[in-house]
Amino acid sequence: MLHLYETLGWWRRSAEAKRVHFAQEVNEFHHLLVMESLGGDRRWADRFFAQHAAIIYYWVLIALWLLSPTTAY
């Protein structure tokens, strides 16, 4: 969404969305660090499930964004 707005010249519309997106990125980064320190990345099955769940989640968000960009956030 942010890249599309910037490409179309609507970058001012995305200022608040950028702040929210950055805060979510920082939160996700710290969450991953905690999960790794607790051993959440040691077993193959855990990594396999996490990778495939992320792919499904990605496509669900794309579908939501096509319906309503604000809903995807």
From TrEMBL:
It is found in: Membrane. InterPro entries: AOX (IPR002680), AOX_sf (IPR038659). Gene3D superfamilies: Alternative oxidase. It comes from the Eukaryota. Belongs to the alternative oxidase family. This is Ubiquinol oxidase. The chain crosses the membrane at residues 48-67. Its main location: membrane. Keywords: Electron transport, Iron, Membrane, Metal-binding, Oxidoreductase, Respiratory chain, Transmembrane, Transmembrane helix, Transport. GO terms for cellular component: membrane; mitochondrion. One of its GO terms (biological process) is alternative respiration. Its cofactor is Fe cation. It comes from Aureococcus anophagefferens (Harmful bloom alga).
